[in-house]
Each structure stands twice: as structure tokens, then as C-alpha cells.
């Protein structure tokens, strides 16, 4: 007999302008072992078109009372029962489907709630100082600028690697955009919960929609919205690189640089955390560590620390490493071996797959030392703690550090830091003992989102 | 000179002939050295069985391998049965869409056109389509069968047909090369042409492809006009998933009956949705005895799937003018028992298979 607590699968309906919508044959969401845990309604293109039309027709979320509304939504997200799921059930399902350790998911719940509550103030941080928020202020004189939306409807084509990707679009909502979120089919729970929480807090269903779609209909969504943020790999970045309406969010290629004037041993905790916290799945996890001088001792110490991390199912509260279906783990492992050819393995050289025996596997950390700072491996970002350690010298210059989301620099060289801050292809520079994954509301992650959504508009003669 | 043929071979769709007898007579006709086409007479030597002896009825059409790939090269004159002599009236040569490679070619003779139009006409009347209303058809014409079927259907119901052409091959090429913006522009161009007609003419029947209907859903003025004056919408050409069908029927065009049409070049006609079902029920297409037989099989084994199960659609066209047996379509569908006395399977919820022989199937506006 089946135990009494075997529940029906969870239904994740689309959340459209006219309420929840369940398709005739919902798609199956499976956990890392391949077991069905939920059914997700993927809407067809005509539904997307009609939802976008309804969003376009609705006005912005009123600015009055917005902070209170966001605070209520944050509380609901962090503690409420949304879409029939309590927060513990929600976190369990995220962990089991995305393979992200439960503690990481729990931290993300609190972190996301913090970002939700402060989304308006956070967006406000990006406002140019020459502009005023809404109506021209008579005290400013004859001519001035207001901060105005470039468009009306914003679409999010989300990824499922980390629940934290759903912190950014709250700012668009706070800026008056109507928002349509297309969840990852692998981890649709977080956006479903967040959109549901915002609806319950009072955001109109015609101002914020959750539109799960297949890959092809996602294009209908991106094309039909005024502006979109799209998460994905290098292929996605290339596809949308020349579309001014689309903000691609690609691999982070986050790095750490240690110069000779700094003893890395004092910062080993930070370096290990940068590689492995968040289970190594985020774009802000370090992919490469560059060391002025001999990199071998650092690689050895890093490998020693990472080798101690336990391999456990994701829902185990002691789990710290990512889990995925076994066949995917084997594919990742095989890819890593082909990329790593010719490097010096300190950890994971004989494989990174830790089979849990239920159809899923832990991806164990990997540390490889490459011959020089120009090694192509430094650009390979994989969804687990996988780091390339390279020697760096002054003659290499900053070329190996380009194309980086977060660069943590352990150095006292002020001139070098200034050069790195000035380098356009490095999005963020953290100097000193700060892990690469550090983030806070109001501090830009990859520029202010408002740079993409808003502009200063000169307004003259309106009192 | 004309050769005598059994009377059963000239049967119309309302004559109620025995499908097995018809198939037997047709196969004899196509493989008799006196009456068969050059293509089938040449091909017979390389078949593993004797069609004239072994095909005793509809089920034996499964003896044939799928030879439709050969229609990509066969000279079309070689497809016309010799039995027509000098009296063969060739109306059209139609191409398949070329979704899965080079187009396949079929011929349409006058007698088959009459039978095809009669069966489409009959099914449309079962749906209560207005007689004498003006039609707007937005469909591929030229070498494509669907536009011709719709124009003839309009004429048969006494409706003058206005039409907008579309070129599905160009759209597929644009999609294959990632030029989504140009697909969008082309679709806008089609919608603009339709708008001029819909807003100035009294259109009673709209026939269009699924993507065009989806695209109309964005145009407030067209929706108002269509819901206000159009009395039936016939959709076809591409697939329509059940959710899209339900949304179009209940939210986009709530005032207008939506009637599905499933056909393709190898079928040489189109099947109309079974009448009397609403949008929350599956969209069922019945075969049309004795000319078009469907079966739904497991693509791995070729064995029929159980009624209610999904499988690959196999289509046979049998007429005096053409024989295209056992053609494995690029579609999947749920196997359903056919209505009335039709032989073979009916199909429900037709959907595309993702790949055919390794080539990605790409659908555009058509």
C-alpha cells in the first residue's frame, strides 16, 4: 500500500492577467532522480500575446504605498503559504529539482525577501542625480529632467541555476513596468512563489504575470515585450547581442587575483567561499584564481579544503555541493575532462561524479592548475565548484582579467586597482577580503537595471 | 484510347461503395500493364509481393513500403495511369511543402478533383457553413494543394472566394537561418493584406492557417470585425495544439465556430473536423472512405497503437488517378474509432513529430 502521505503532484499554473491558467496536458517537472514532483502549465503563443496586451493596457503599480506592498510580499514569500505550498515545502522542492543544497535555498529565501522589500529603494539608487522622480519640481528652476520609463512591458526569461536570479526584476516592477516572467522549466517554483506572493500583497494580476512556455514560445514572449532580460550561455548572449531591447545575462566568469604583496593564506577562507559557497552554481562564484608567483601552493591548499566537502543529497541540511541527474553529471564530467586536457589536476582529475545511487549524482569540486594566464580553460564556467588556478605576472597585464562579472582583488597595489575599476569589461571589482558572491540591495550586480529601463527626459514649462 | 474500368472505381464519396472492393479494384488498375502508370508498373518489379494478387482490401495497403520519397524525382507524366489514354485531364501538379527536404509531387486529375471537392463540400455543410457567403482564404496557393482545396470549397458552397497567397517555403527558409524578424515582417505583410479585405468586404467564412489566426489575436480591429460578421473559421495547414484551439474558440473568436481541416499533399485532399464536438473535446478527423485511409502506429515497430493512444500517422491515398499507399506522415495523433462506415482509423489532436529522418521539422506561418 502506498503511504498516506503520498501527495498529488503540485500543479504550477500559469499566472495570467485573468488569474491562474492550467493547460490541458501540463509538462512534467522532475527532481534530480527523475521522479515527477510537479506539473507545469506551458502556455501557447496566443496566450502570451494576449497576456502581454493586457499588461500593456494596465498602468504602473501605484507608487503610493509601494514600499508597504513590497514589504508584505517579502513577508509572504519568506513565511506564507503560496500556491498551496508552505515555505518549507517550497524550499524542499527547489532543492530536489535544482539540486541546490537546502541551506543555500533557505539563505536565498531570506535574501530574496530582503531584495523584494527594498526593491523600490534599490531601484532609486540607479537614478541619475540630474533627474527628479516623477513630476518636475518647481524649485529646480526653468528646465530639468524627469526619470522616465523607456517602455512599458518588461519580460524576464529566467534561468534555474540559483533562486537569486529573481531578485533583479522586482526593480522593473518598482519602476512602473509591467512584468512577465518566464520561469526556468527546471526550477519554476521560485518565480511561481514570488509572483503569487506579490499578487497576494496587492500587485494586480494584469501588472505581473508568470508565463511558463517552451523554448520556442519564449521567443514570442521576448519579441512581444518592449524590453527583456534573458539569462543563458554564450549562445544566448550572441543571439541577442545586437538587439537593443534585450539585456543578456550570460556566464559570470568571476575571478580572483592575488598579487605578490598579499599572503593568500590569510584569505583562504574567502577564496574557498568564493569558489564553493552557493554550491558553486552562481555566476558570482569564482571560476578562476590568478596568482602572482607560483600558483601551486594555493591550488594545493584550495584542493585540500574543497576535497573535504561532503557528497550528500541536496535536501540534507549538511549538503553543500550541487546534485543533478546522473546522466547529466556524467556529461559534465566528460566535458570537464576534455577541457582540462593538458592541465595539472589538484582535485577532480579522476572524475567529479559522486553517484548517489538513486539516479542522481553529486558534482564534486575540481581544481586544475593551468600553465599561464592566457590559458583558454580560464573561460570555462561549469555549474559546480570548478576552479582554474593560473600564474599571473605584471607582463600579462589586465588582459586575462577582462570579461569578468566580479573580480575580487587581494592586493595593496592602488594603481592596479584603479586600472581594474576603469576596465569596461569588468563589471564589479571587490578589493580586499570580500567574497565574490557578496551582494546587497542598491548595489549594482551588472550595472543598474535602471540603466536599461529608464532615461532622463528634459521637461520644460510644466509647473 | 480509354480503357474500361470497373464501375466501382468511378464511385463518388456519397455512393457508399465497399472500401475493400474499391481498394482491390484500384490496385488492379494501377498495376495492370494496360492501365497502370509508368511509375507503378516499373516499381512493381521491385516490390516484395504481387499487388494484384495480394492486396485484397484496405488492411493490405500496409504491405507497401513507404515509397513517397520517390515522388521527389519521378517525372509527373509517369504518374498518370495509362488507362485514361488521351482522356486524362490533368488539372494541377501539386508539391508538398518541402518541410522535410525536396518537395514531393503529385498530379490532380479532373475526376479526383470532383470527388475531393464533393467530400469537402459535404463535410462543410455538416458543420452548417453558410451557402453563398463570401470567403477569405489566406493559404499557400501555386504548387500547394491547400489553397486550391479551399478555393474549390468556397466555389462549391456558392461563395465568391477572395484570397491572399502565402509562401511557406520562404518562411521556413527564414526560420531555418534564424531571421525571425523577417518572418515577423512577412506575417505583418499578410495581416495588412487581410485587414484591407476584412474591413472593406463582407466576409462570411475565413479560412486561414493557425499562425495567422494567432497573429490576428493581436489586432483589436480585426477581432471586432471577425467576431461581428464572420460566420465560420476554417483552420488548417499547420497543427493547432488543444490549448491554442480552446483559447481561440473561447476567448479570441468566441462568436465564430472554429472548424479544423487536416490535409496534405500526399492525401490529395483535406479532412474536416468531426462535427458536433466543442473546443473542450479533442479535435477528431475522420478518414474518407474509400479514398483516404489512416492508421496510427508505434513508429518503432510499425504496429497499430491501442485506441486512445498516440502514435505516428500513416496515410494512404487510393483513387483511380493516384495511388500513394502507406505514407508515414510527419504527424503524431491519438487513435480514434472512425465515424460511420469509414474504414481504418480516425485521428485526434494531430501534432508534429520533432524530427523526420534527422532533419528538424520547421513550421512557419504555414
Automatic annotation (TrEMBL), chain A:
Fetch the Gene3D superfamilies from UniProt: Aldehyde Dehydrogenase, Chain A, domain 1 (3.40.605.10), Aldehyde Dehydrogenase, Chain A, domain 2 (3.40.309.10)
* Alphabetically ordered keywords of this record: Oxidoreductase
| Disordered: annotated span | 121-141
State the InterPro entries in the record.
Answer: Ald_DH/histidinol_DH, Ald_DH_C, Ald_DH_N, Aldehyde_DH_dom
SUPFAM superfamilies cross-referenced by the UniProt entry: ALDH-like
Residues passing through the membrane, by range:
none
Q: Outline the extent of the Aldehyde dehydrogenase domain.
A: 170-395
Q: What protein am I looking at?
A: Aldehyde dehydrogenase family protein
TrEMBL record, chain B:
- What top-level branch of life does the organism fall under? Bacteria
Under which name does UniProt file this protein? AMP-binding protein
Traced from the root, the source organism's taxonomic lineage reads: Bacteria, Bacillati, Actinomycetota, Actinomycetes, Kitasatosporales
